Amino acid sequence: MISGFKKDISDKIFGFWGHIHITDYNINRSIEATPILKNQDFLLDLDTLKKIHYQRPMEFMGRIIPGKFSFQEIDVNIKSIYPFAMVPAIINSNEEFDGVIIRGLGEDYDWAQLEPYIMEGSKISAPNEILISTRIAERLKVGVGDEVILNIIKNNQQLKRKTKVVGTYRTGLEEYDKKFVIADLSKVQELLMWDSNQVAGYEIILDDIENVATISEYITVEILPTRLFSETIRDKFPNIFEWLDLQDFNGSVILILMILVALINMITSILILIIERSKMIGTLKALGMSNWNIRKIFLYYSGYIIGYGLLIGNILGLGICYLQKVTGFIKLDETNYYLSVAPINIELWTILFLNVAAFIVILIFLILPTYIIAKLEPVKILRFE
């Protein structure tokens, strides 16, 4: 569930913003950006970028070894590159108005990223069409097919443009849904009084984001001209990703607590088994069996109990996960969690690793309580029996 939570929210953010942004160094953090030329020489370099060779400091047990470097090679699979532009504006209907940020996307934009979140209507197909969130639609009291007016102030002039709402979207990310309007790039260029060859920057979509930070740094240093820079979405919006990283810590705490509970239960069980089988232990010792061989009998049986417990636990756990994935019976408050249902992401290798790790760790810790067998004397045990 934690894995699904991180994956679904990350997919929403990347689907809305892409993975890497290329903009001017003098970008205004209040959204309105310094324009750059749409036709750039670096675009050809990005199209042909397939591998990156770089060196990184060598590490040993989490510590960097001074003066030592290792050479690395990673594959780069750029799925798409498209221009964008943004401008703050006032949007008003016949009854209400609201402050928004208009995000202009070009014809190269891959709508497959945003289409899963379109609730009504369709994507943009003309310059005078816009896509608004369901929250903005509720505030403005408009729906698909209604007309609204976009207002901005540029060079001390008020610009008004009538547009048509062709669709509504909902990502569940409150900070995006309450203020972003999706429009055609040409409409934002018109509002900003830019020509058709001026854009705010470029968004890059990668097939694999494992090395996105390294790729972004390489693009800035090796490919882009000096006045442009590359920035990952994680660096641009760090707060939400830091919150997602915190889920890993929560997951680790939960796993540690579960293993501790399992350890306590198994230690208690093996001590009870030893007490119940004390006559058998005394007989085996009297026949000459060594303490270690007797302890192995209990360890083998403990391993059987652990394995049986893991099997039942996996069947129940994965069964509930599958049921949640199909039916979504566990609901969440979307305002607080960005998702309306608890997400599930089943990673078979992770599940296998957790099972094997739990089995080994618990079995190793069970070696200690079996030492009590060495303290048992056959004469006293058999006399007592």
UniProtKB/TrEMBL annotation:
Domain of life of the source: Bacteria
Record-given protein name: Permease
Topology of the protein relative to the lipid bilayer: Multi-pass membrane protein
Keywords: Cell membrane, Membrane, Transmembrane, Transmembrane helix
Annotated TM spans: 253-276, 297-320, 348-374
UniProt keyword Transmembrane, yes or no: yes
Coiled-coil stretches: none
Compartments in which it is found: Cell membrane
Family: Belongs to the ABC-4 integral membrane protein family. LolC/E subfamily.
Pfam families: FtsX
Statement: the UniProt record of this protein carries the keyword Transmembrane helix: yes
Record GO biological process: lipoprotein localization to outer membrane
Gene Ontology terms: cellular component: plasma membrane protein complex
Limits of the ABC3 transporter permease C-terminal domain: 253-378
